[in-house]
Backbone:
């Protein structure tokens, strides 16, 4: 026994970061597509890529970078793959920037931008956001900003994002910005105090605010600055002087109820506002009331984003009612909140007033069948022109499938439909798929992953998209499609106008699973949590049985 103990060697775990899974690669392509086709300082300078062109470029970039990084990894087979991951990320960013700077090259009809802004000559745009995020102090700020001090310069759009200004750098920047503020139209100072102590960051904000106060801006981006109420009030002088804003971005800023109140109070007028984005804040119901007040005062709003802001039923109802004044709205994104059925019903009463909607994002709102049915019943009549509809994660079952299908039948302009993470099962899948099979010539993407359907549901969705010209992606991952069902889907796609390449990854599909087991598992979980003493061990066992060491993928 002693000898055996001496020979025992502790087990070690080897964590490999490379290669990434298929789902991770697909996620990267989707993220790049979004970045390439979203409004940015580059799109204003070089033009905005359409989603189809962006997707083609994203897929090409990912494949090239994966091949390069994989070749690199083969030269270091004993490593953990971290250098391959770094190369993968670095080359991806580099090639994305090249695509952005080339601008759109397709001859297809371009997408209508939210705001018609003419592209100005390059010498009107000043941008220091490229490269790695870095701290800058006085000497570097003086060098970086020197083009703004040249006599007769015509810079009207500046982007100082991705550089962390210290107090010294801010004192250099202040007088320079003040000297050109009369010619400025667009200012991006997002993510410009990262990593600074709170007191220093607030002082930097005050310096920039004072320097830019009185400028007549149409575009202001103060996102990614962890503002909170103190930060919002640090921008008091700048915000109070802005009565002509057309675009305002306050995303990922820690906007609480008090901060939302301050923002609503400080901006004198939002009558000209066309874009208002509040994504990823901790606004809650209290803050939603103040945002709703801003929305009410913004009759010309065309794009409103208030996603991931912790807004519940009361705040959702207030926002829904306020949006009724925004009759020119083209894009509405309120996903990932806690609206519930009541707010969903309130939204259904507002939607008929929004006759220009093109994109509607309603995922993860806890709408359930009742809220979903209320919404799709009005969309059927009021928004047949919709191009993007997302309703993932709303506990939609086959009960709501018929009214949902009737709504989709009317939406012949759909380009992207997302119904992931619902509970359609085969019956609901058949109804929805049938509504998409006829017409819908522009449909490019369909995401019905995680919907508890099996072979027949998968077959119906494959038949629905097989003959759509230009179709790009069918995501049916994380369902219960048997192997023979997957083979059938591939045959259907090959026989149509599209190849099987449009079928997304199936790495999370459970070919031997059964959707009816979901209910049994929930019952087992309840028994483990609330049952007798044996239930305590069962609950612990269920947590430990799936415990494993996994690499965290980029």
Residues:
């Amino acid at each position: 026994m002693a000898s055996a103990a001496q020979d025992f060697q502790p087990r070690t775990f080897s964590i490999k970061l490379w290669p990434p899974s298929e789902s991770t690669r697909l996620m990267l392509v989707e993220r790049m597509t979004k970045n390439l086709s979203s409004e940015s300082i580059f799109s204003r300078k070089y033009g905005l890529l359409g989603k189809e062109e962006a997707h083609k470029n994203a897929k090409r970039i990912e494949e090239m970078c994966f091949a390069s990084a994989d070749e690199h990894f083969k030269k270091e087979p004993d490593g953990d793959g971290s250098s391959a991951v770094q190369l993968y990320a670095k080359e991806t960013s580099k090639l994305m920037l090249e695509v952005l700077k080339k601008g759109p090259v397709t001859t297809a009809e371009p997408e209508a931008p939210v705001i018609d802004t003419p592209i100005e000559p390059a010498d009107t745009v000043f941008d220091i956001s490229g490269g790695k995020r870095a701290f800058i102090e006085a000497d570097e700020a003086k060098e970086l900003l020197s083009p703004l001090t040249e006599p007769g310069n015509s810079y009207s759009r500046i982007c100082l994002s991705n550089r962390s200004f210290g107090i010294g750098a801010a004192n250099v920047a202040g007088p320079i910005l003040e000297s050109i503020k009369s010619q400025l139209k667009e200012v991006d100072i997002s993510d410009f105090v990262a990593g600074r102590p709170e007191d220093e960051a607030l002082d930097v904000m005050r310096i920039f605010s004072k320097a830019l106060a009185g400028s007549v801006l149409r575009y202001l981006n103060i996102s990614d600055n962890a503002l909170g109420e103190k930060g919002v009030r640090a921008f008091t002088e700048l915000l109070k002087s802005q009565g002509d804003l057309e675009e305002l971005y306050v995303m990922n800023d820690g906007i609480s109820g008090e901060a939302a109140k301050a923002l609503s109070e400080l901006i004198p007028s939002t009558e000209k506002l066309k874009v208002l984005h509040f994504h990823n804040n901790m606004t809650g119901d209290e803050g939603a009331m103040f945002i709703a007040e801003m929305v009410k005062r913004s009759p010309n709003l065309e794009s409103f984003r208030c996603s991931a802001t912790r807004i519940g039923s009361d705040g959702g109802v207030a926002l829904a009612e306020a949006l009724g004044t925004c009759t020119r709205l083209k894009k509405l994104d309120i996903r990932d909140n806690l609206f519930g059925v009541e707010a969903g019903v309130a939204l259904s009463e507002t939607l008929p007033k929004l006759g220009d909607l093109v994109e509607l994002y309603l995922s993860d709102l806890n709408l359930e069948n009742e809220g979903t049915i209320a919404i799709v019943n009005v969309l059927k009549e009021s928004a047949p022109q919709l191009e993007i509809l997302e309703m993932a994660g709303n506990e939609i079952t086959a009960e709501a499938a018929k009214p949902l299908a009737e709504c989709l039948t009317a939406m012949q302009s759909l380009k992207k439909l997302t119904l992931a993470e619902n509970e359609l099962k085969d019956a609901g899948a058949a109804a929805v798929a049938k509504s998409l099979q006829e017409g819908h010539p522009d449909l490019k993407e369909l995401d019905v992953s995680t919907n508890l359907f099996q072979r027949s549901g998968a077959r119906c969705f494959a038949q629905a998209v097989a003959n759509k010209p230009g179709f790009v992606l069918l995501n049916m991952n994380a369902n219960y499609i048997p192997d023979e069902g997957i083979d059938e889907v591939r045959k259907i796609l090959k026989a149509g106008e599209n190849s099987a390449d449009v079928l997304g990854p199936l790495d999370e599909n459970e070919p031997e699973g059964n959707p009816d087991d979901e209910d049994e598992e929930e019952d087992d979980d309840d028994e483990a949590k609330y049952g007798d003493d044996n239930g305590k061990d069962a609950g612990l066992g269920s947590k430990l049985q799936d415990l494993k060491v996994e690499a965290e993928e980029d």
